[in-house]
Design goal:
Blueprint: H1 2-33, H2 36-46, H3 62-73, H4 89-95, H5 97-100, H6 106-118, H7 131-136, E1 139-140, E2 145-146, H8 151-164, H9 170-178, H10 197-200, H11 206-218, H12 225-235, H13 252-264, H14 281-287, H15 305-309, H16 312-315, H17 347-365
Antiparallel strand pairs: 1-2
Helix pairs in contact: 1-17, 3-4, 3-6, 6-8, 8-11, 11-12, 11-13, 13-14
């Protein structure tokens, strides 16, 4: 009987230890699905229409493309981002490839290419289109411009080429370098020190600057990192975030883009160098997230897909283009969780320690000798 009690005690102990492990795994899964990035992605899924698209500005594919990129960077398969109809966001992007990527819209080509690469598809044959060839047709070898050469189209075009593993023309990079304003930033027209800046509002802004810096770094040109980061630092608000231009007030999209630009240079957006009054850009992003996971642009009544779609890559600590060829980012079919788990904090850990302690008592009390260590 005494041996039987000892065996029973040891068996119960091991059962409790197994329970500890199960609780730990469950807590880990809950923590992963309650991260700000995943909650933002879940908000975007709630905005997904029957065709697989994320509702956004009319004629824009940006929200859907960023949804795919952000999900892939977060460990989810873009092809598993399906609507109730079974259509995925990639189905939607494939159906609209010819419209999203045209010679007159090289920026659209560059962004779509990044989404296609995120899903593991081929940008040379997506939705019946050769996106890389179309993008290349928008290039002016004389000027180095893609399309009109404005900051976003030029930067997105270069990012798309890098994502596709295509050669970036040296004049295209030099065009961006030459467009830098004397203060260290870039303006949306990519016109250095625009003489009409006072009347056409074409002064340096954080969004254009961040996108251009990511493009230059992706192309291997880091010569402008120091001067650009120095200018961006002058734009940071006391809340840790960034405005479009000084005085506008921090907004989630500008903050997200600057975070990505910092990451592109090898910097740490959560480090002391980017702490303002004890608050970092990441602090600002996490503190301004709505309860439903979405993000609200200042002055608006509530969150929207356009604003939210630009945030997940920053929360995930990646710059554009995300180097999806560098490693396996997700398993095929990896889908978003059904809902966001509530952050559980301390209780699971406390429960684990209690179970381990009880297991130790049962082992020792049952006549055996055991040393049980809890590992955090």
């Amino acid at each position: 009987m005494k041996g039987s009690h000892r065996c029973t005690g040891v068996a119960m102990a091991f059962a409790l230890i197994a329970a500890c492990a199960a609780v730990g795994v469950t807590a880990g899964a809950a923590q992963a699905s309650s991260t700000p990035a995943t909650r933002a992605l879940l908000y975007l899924r709630s905005q997904q229409g029957a065709g697989g698209a994320i509702a956004g500005p009319s004629g824009s594919y940006t929200d859907s493309e960023l949804y795919a990129i952000g999900a892939a960077a977060g460990g989810y398969d873009p092809r598993a981002l399906t609507a109730s109809s079974g259509k995925s966001v990639m189905d939607y992007l494939a159906a609209g490839a010819a419209e999203a990527c045209t010679r007159s819209n090289p920026g659209g080509c560059g962004e779509l290419i990044q989404a296609v690469v995120a899903a593991g598809d081929a940008p040379h044959s997506f939705g019946g289109e050769d996106l890389v060839t179309t993008l290349s047709s928008a290039y002016d070898a004389t000027t180095g411009e893609y399309g009109d050469g404005e900051a976003f189209p030029q930067a997105l075009a270069i990012q798309g080429l890098v994502a596709a593993g295509a050669q970036v023309p040296a004049p295209a990079v030099q065009f961006l370098v030459s467009a830098q304003d004397s203060d260290g930033g870039w303006d949306y027209e990519d016109l250095a020190n625009d003489p009409k800046a006072a009347t056409d509002f074409d002064t340096s802004d954080t969004n254009s600057t961040a996108m251009v810096l990511m493009a230059l770094d992706a192309a291997g040109d880091h010569a402008r990192d120091t001067s650009t980061l120095a200018w961006l630092a002058t734009q940071q608000d006391a809340d840790g975030g960034f405005p479009y231009q000084s005085g506008d007030g921090s907004d989630p999209d500008s903050t997200a883009l600057v975070i990505q630009a910092i990451v592109a240079t090898g910097g740490d957006p959560s480090g002391a160098a980017w702490s303002k009054a004890g608050k970092t850009p990441l602090d600002h992003l996490t503190s301004t997230q709505d309860k439903d996971g979405g993000y609200t642009f200042p002055g608006k009544k509530g969150p929207d897909a356009f604003t939210t779609s630009q945030v997940p890559p920053a929360l995930e600590g990646v710059a554009f283009p995300v180097p999806f060829a560098s490693r396996r980012w997700y398993e095929a079919g990896a889908a978003l969780p059904a809902t966001a788990a509530r952050a559980s904090g301390g209780p699971p850990a406390a429960l684990i320690y209690a179970l381990v302690a009880l297991a130790a008592v049962l082992v020792i009390g049952g006549g055996g000798v055991a040393v049980v260590r809890a590992r955090r």
